[in-house]
Amino acid sequence: MPERGLFHSGLLLSALLLASGAALAAGAQEAAGNSSLITPKVKQIYKIDCAFCHGDNGNGKTDAATSMKMVMLDYTDPKSLEGKTDQELFDMIRKGKDQMPPEDASRAKDTDVQGLVAYLRSMSKGAKQTAATPAAPAASPNPNR
User: Fold this and answer.
1) What pLDDT digit, counting tens, does each position of 72-130 carry?
2) What is the CATH number of the domain that holds 47?
3) CA 37 – CA 132 distance, rounded (Å)
């Protein structure tokens, strides 16, 4: 009997973890199209924590990046984020990658990180891109007409 209770508790915990992860993922995917997430706080976080290496405009051409021999993505180029989902960008910001430190939850809430994702995407020169939203399939001609 105790094993059954543990099994059900484990199932419940797993379901809760899956649900919270799905909600976070959905929120991150919405970031690209939601400019309301780009708050003054988000811009300040970028300026303090990101711009030193990534540049004020996101082009990645900074003295810091050059001196640390880092090749940065150019966020002003639409192609630089083309294959990346909002969730991948969210995770990269939250967890860090290579020499990039993570954005600690005590400094930036999840909504702030979602705002950073939206801000990165907004730096692109005119192209609205969302890897999370596939293009609609082209309409096929009706062969019966």
Assistant:
1) 999 999 999 999 999 999 999 999 998 899 999 999 999 999 999 999 999 987 645 44
2) 1.10.760.10
3) 17
Q: How far apart are CA 66 and CA 125, in angstroms?
A: 23
Q: Which two tokens stand for residue 47?
A: 């300026």
As a whole number of angstroms, the distance between CA 35 and CA 115 comes to: 8
Domain membership of residue 94 as a residue range: 28-122
pTM of the predicted protein model: 0.64
Residue 137 lies in a domain: no
Q: How many domains, in total, are found in the chain?
A: 1
The answer to whether residues 124 and 76 touch, using CB atoms and an 8 Å cutoff, is: yes
Q: What is the DSSP string of the chain?
A: -HHHHHHHHHHHHHHHHHHHHHHHHHHHHHGGG-GGG--HHHHHHIIIIIHHHH-TTS----HHHHHTT-----TTSGGGGTT--HHHHHHHHHH-BTTBPP--TTTS-HHHHHHHHHHHHHTSSS----TTSPPPPPPPPPTT-
User: Would you say residue 32 lies in a domain?
Assistant: yes
